[in-house]
Amino acid sequence: MKEKDDRISVTHATFTLERNYAASSERVFAALRDPAIKRRWFCEGEGWTVDEFTMDFRVGGRETSRFRPKEGPPMGNDTVYMDIVANRRIVLAYVMTVGDARISASLATFDVEPSGEGTKVTFTEQSAFFGSSDGVDGRKAGWSELFEKLGAELEKSAR
Amino acid sequence: MSEAIIHETLIFERRYAASAARVFEAYVDVGLRTRWSAPTPTSAIVYSETDFRVGGRDVYRCGAKDDLRYLANTHYCDIQPNRRIVYSESVAADGEMLSVSLNTWSLTPEGAKTHLVVTVQLVAFGGKEMIQGTRFGTNAALDHLGELVDVSA
Predict the structure, then answer these.
(1) What ipTM score was computed for the predicted complex, to two decimals?
(2) B53 pLDDT band (50/70/90 cuts)?
(3) pTM
(4) Cβ contacts (< 8 Å) between B121 and chain A: which residues?
């Protein structure tokens, strides 16, 4: 009975991250929109194998990624694009899975705006974490790492 | 922030004199859902697509009966029979996006009753109107749902 209750429990959380990039809002947006670029900063990484990455960037379109570490269960991300304003805003809904279990459902808002010579990205995640998911701290750390990789990608492509 | 994006969490709670299975069924059954969802006697909700399964989508219009100006898309994220429904939803009117939300329905049996908690995590565009609208619409719908499922009535 205890186990069942744990599976059913939900924890809701909201967090915001702000990043400034020395790139135009068009280039930042392109890194969110273009499947080849997004795959590089969002999925690929040392020690990870990407089994699948497909992306249909339009309102109602889906993005599916499957990836796994050297050890441990495979992970998945199933995304639906809910709202897109070119060069300004993306709102997507995504479900994360570990093995066969869904661990969370979230909304992610990317608010992209020109700021001085560069671009400010305000990222807001509203999440529902299921059962024994590691929750908001792990998620925040995960996105912080992804935004580092996005920054590195923007620097690399600027050269 | 550009164009005033507001993030807000709304929580609604009800205790219904009905089993969790009955409350769950009143959501799953689109005929029943259509009955309790409309917030006022002069408003209506009309589905053009329904697909209640994880990864499935509903599409509906709602608003005044003679002016169904709101277009909504629902995507089901998680379903645990009789216990939980999680879906994302966008609402637009006249081609303009008004809000996107993540909605969690948690049903907990309490003896012969059911404790329902609906958590709406909302992204609203263009001011607070959609927050007020969501609060009003959800409260009205959940009251109607209670009247529909209440076995003592």
Answers:
(1) 0.94
(2) very high
(3) 0.95
(4) 12, 14, 107, 126-128
